[in-house]
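Hey everyone, long-time lurker, first post.

I ran two proteins through the pipeline my lab uses and got sequence/structure pairs for each. Pasting them in order. The first:
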Amino acid sequence: MFATRPVVWCLLAALLFGASTPASKALLDGFGPLTLAGLLYLGAALAVLPFSLSGGSAVRRRSPHNLGSLIGAVVFGGIVGPALLLYGLRLAPSASVSLWLNLETGATAVLALWFFQENLEWRDWLANLGVVVAGVVLAAPDGFGLAPAALLVAAAAVCWGLDNNWTATIDGFTPEQVTLAKGVVAGTFNLGLGLALGQPVAGVGLTVLALLVGGLAYGASIVLYIRGAQQLGATRSQMLFATAPFLGVAVAWVALGEPVALVQVIAMTLLIGSLTILFTGHHEHDHAHDSMVHTHLHCHDDGHHDHTHPDIDLPPGAWHTHEHVHQAIVHVHAHQPDLHHRHTHP
């Protein structure tokens, strides 16, 4: 039921973002939380700029849905969320913060159910609960005793939960264009606010390093995540992305010498079991699609993209992006809450 490539995109995004927490912890010695957040997102913008100059749909970009979703993603996902995370990171070990980020998985699922018409079945909720519990098990040695830091990270998780749901439904901007907008606006705002408040900025060497970390851990990671979320839905892609805290912990052990606990093996096993439950799901029923025109990454072997390319010899499984038309149709097939399946389930 799950396409392989979107799953790989989400896991690669998790790998890149997971490494950002200990890297950001080390960089906070030379920066304030706001100035570092600004540089990380400006690095993301620089990384995706060459790939953002074409694609998307000029008509769809002007739609209230796409503009509103982009603005929400930029404000909550690019400005507020990173600032809250870095303030929390200043008060707690990077391994603890990496584990608390699992709260984003639960926040994404609850918001998806309440506000974004994303269908979740019992096995999805069970998998989601398992992922969150895995994070709680890992965090147990710290006992959430660092209450202020934990609350800041929890607030950041809610912000990113909103961001995840908005970006999963954008179909007028390419993932690179979404990341560019988020990087430029959020980076400039946070850096400017940090400088105005007198927060420190390190020398040229560490500044370049912060931009490089942002380019990989935010720029490439966000692009990969959006690509996966558009195909899998916000909740399912977030459950894959939830491997990021575990990867962040592993980096913290190796790079920062933070201690390893036996309980982590239990949590890793629980995580793997939860993802197995997620991957074995099968959702299929008779459903209707309205006629629509939009732009997004797609291939021609999913039962929805049957348009032709007369001038291009394009294999069915080749992923590509362009504006295309969907005719109204009623059919039955296994599906997920991607860009084409946001129908209700009475």
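...and the second, right after it:
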Amino acid sequence: MIFNSLVFVIFFAIVFLIYWSLQNRLTIQNLILLVSSLVFYGWWDWRFLGLIILSSIIDFVVGKQIHGSNHDSIRKYWLLVSLTSNLGLLAFFKYYNFFTDSFVDMVGVFGWNPGYVTLNIILPVGISFYTFQTLSYTIDIYRRQFEPTNNFTNFLTYIAFFPQLVAGPIERAADLLPQIETRRKFNREWFNAGLIQTGVGFIRKIVIADNLAKYVDPVFENPEFHNSTTLVIATIFYAFQIYFDFSGYSDIAIGIAKMLGFKFNRNFNLPYFSKSITEFWRRWHISLSTWLRDYLYISLGGNRKGIKIQYRNLMITMLVGGLWHGSSWNFIIWGGIHGMVLVMEKFIFSRNFFSVFRRRPFNYLGILITFFIVCISWIFFRAPTLEDAFFILKKIFSFDFGRPFMNDINILATVLFALFLGFIVDTYLYKKKIPLEVWGAKFSPIQIGLFLTATILIISLFFSNSNNFIYFQF
């Protein structure tokens, strides 16, 4: 079941009506959320329900064991149980074939052929997201920053909550569990804000991202048939496609959660207005970047052990962040590019001589340079293989410019209009400094009606075959 489907719209309408008809009965409300979340996830493949339940049982028990002990050795033992079990499952389902293939390629250089060692493993949807979410629970308890819940239903609801189960945002237990365990009442302003944000999310996904895909996909699937001009355009279009696709998902997730009485943390904050890669990662996929900062970068020592160790920690964090996205060298290189630029920025801006670059006249130049670097890295993210990524880069910098690929002029016109629409909305929010999460809170019923009418009209005009969200593969 995906957000951009009629099945989900009907599913959510039923859940919404039943859920709020029981607003004075917290236990039953949470049970409704849990059952609906398991149905939502089981819709993909019911076999993976056992996996998410197993992870939840392990960390529910581990959390209580860590909290109940004052002996450091025992606490570390139980934390290790959580880390090895969760990361072990993630490694098996997501990385087994990648590591075995890499091993075979490496030993093949020395003339050893170990034979066929890969397995036909299906990647469970959302495993990267809920693994990080459940790990934050046990780590926070280990750090004595959070106390475990005694209610397994509430804990499983926290892990499996359907708005953010498949592709985030990655919510911390300290933020979401107290909301699950607190009585909720229908709030019209929250409903309005959630409805508007959900509508914007659908437009970003269906109208903008899916139409951009019509140009991007044919080019990246067959880069050898296209000139530098086309590859540059496709790369820029992909930068906006993945942004509107993933931010659209996040908007829908945050919006429907708000309509159910839950407040999620912001996951995107207009990242392409960033003046540096450091700022970009404060604005892009915020729930992941803060998770990596708090649980990996800081655990490695952060910036507390000298500048060289800080550079090392930045590189490790971004390489892991790349590997988290996918089991291929493309993603590792993507993370490595961001890591190297972060290190360079730390070095440059730690020197007073370069402080001039922080001044206002250099802001627009910083935005352009940052966007250029991000686009170069997106080539590795999007290209089907590592060889394709290097081929595209080589072709772009061969300056083989010419007439761009258009195929169907109507598709290109639609893409440009959709992109213009997204740019206008984001620029308006950026200039007005209005968080999308609260934009529609004060809308009147007439404004809500006009917005919904416009949303349905725009979607119906531009809808074709809507694609899966890009981040479902991670």
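Reply from user beta_strand_b:
Welcome! Quick read of the second one: The chain has 18 helices and no strands. The longest helix spans residues 72-108.
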